[in-house]
Amino acid sequence: MSEQLPLVMPKSPLGQAIAYSLQRWEGLSAYALHGQIEIDNNLAENAIRPLAIGRKAFLFAGSHQAAEMTAAMYSFMATCKKNGVNEQQWLTDVLERIQSHKHKDLYQLLPNNWSKYRKQDV
């Protein structure tokens, strides 16, 4: 005598979960087949969280120009972080040197170039 498996009703929570999974089966099986694929996107979400928070802050910046300046500072700070530059040291140094820096050499003060050119100047 064969044993009959219980039926799952399509509209039940379990049935809906199975249907959801079946529609995304290719992506789910890619994770199982390729070990280098992350199971979640927490790393990406954590990386963009400060930008999302900043975006909300831009709404209360006071003016369009203030929002643009705030966005520029967020961009500079993110570039510092990406390049392993201490944000406070970079900003202090840039504010001290920018007045006397030649216009054509301002690229040297950008966070991604700062360490290289700072060592030559110090």
From TrEMBL:
Highest taxon listed in the record's lineage: Bacteria
Domain Transposase IS66 C-terminal: 75-111
Pfam families with a match to the protein in the record: DDE_Tnp_IS66, DDE_Tnp_IS66_C
Start and end residues of each Transposase IS66 central domain: 2-68
Coiled coil residues, start to end: none
Protein name: Transposase IS66 family protein
Taxonomic placement: Bacteria, Pseudomonadati, Bacteroidota, Cytophagia, Cytophagales
